[in-house]
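INFO  loader      accepted 1 record
INFO  loader      residues=405
INFO  predictor   begin
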Amino acid sequence: MRFFSTIFVAFRALRRNKMRSILTALGIIIGVGAVITMVSIGDGAESQVEAQIASLGQNIILIFAGSATTGGMRSGYGGAGSLTLDDAAAIKTEVRNVAGVSPEVRGQAQVLANGLNWQTRIMGESEDYLAMRQWPLADGSNFSDQDIRGDGKVCIVGTTIVTNLFPDGDPVGKTLRIRNLPFKIEGVLASKGFSLQGTDQDDIILIPYSSAMKRFSRQSFLGTINVQAEDAEHMPQIEQDIANLLRDRHHIVSGRDDDFRVQDQQEIAQAATETTRTMTFLLGAIAGVSLLVGGIGIMNIMLVSVTERTREIGIRMAVGAHGSDIRLQFLIEAVVLSLMGGTLGILLGIGGSQVLSHFNHWPVLISTVAIVTAFVFSGAVGVCFGYYPASKAAQLDPIDALRYE
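INFO  predictor   done
INFO  writer      dumping tokens
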């Protein structure tokens, strides 16, 4: 019964000074609101990165050609020209649990159609590429294995190409010229928008890799081979099998550096999301400082309250209240202020996140874990910063308290 009456006294004391209670809680409100908003922005950015990485395909393994040294100058990965079509064929036939393989040839070219021209990326790929990258067609069909075997002059275009070269919006079956060579458009890719690096993913033309090698690059080697595993569980073993196979095919003896590099998509995703995680942590830490300042504000006001109510404390002790009752009363006041501020701060943070998302078009992700953590942390702030004033009040001498003016 004494516990509930102590809670009643604590709430009554807060109601007596409504404005001071609101201003004291304001620091917690701003702190929690800032934490929720900043973490939501950071989590939203991270989720966007992960979604864009996932849009590149599932269980993808990338094989890059190694670097080359010419005249003392070392090129980056892809410069050695150490990967061949035979390597890609061997991976597809000899490595177990491989769902698809796409040799890749990259380039840039000026394309023309309908009296219009456009500079764009040209990528030579296999018929497996769209399935591997989970890239559906908005219209038309994919090129076939027969097109690849026959170095077919067929292509699939992105929506940016359609917008800039085909104002009527119906390019399937029509012809465009790539470096003055006519290519028939078989299909139109579904729009993917911009990548993490700000590159327009729809500004692209896909052609058979055999046609790209024969008509444009005029080289017999590849810079990249895309491999898709049947499932994530087999990816480590597939990577090891690919490395062993290529070492054997390239006659790389033990102790010598590989002339290729194998990298899975998970490594790429981890590298891409590490920056956003760091940003989220820094934003949350900066916002957490304001929460700390709010806690100091609570302690300051509670110390003032103890001083103002010294005579009241003396009277309560004189009529039988124990030091633990006084401590609990002031501790409850501090916790109530913190939790009230935490609740309002959560609402402020959710509202602020939505406003930023609406006006700035930032991706936000409001995490339940962040909300619960902020609420619990605000209560912990009340306990930590309210304990010292509460203990000081409990240690007052009743006689000195009654004499206090």
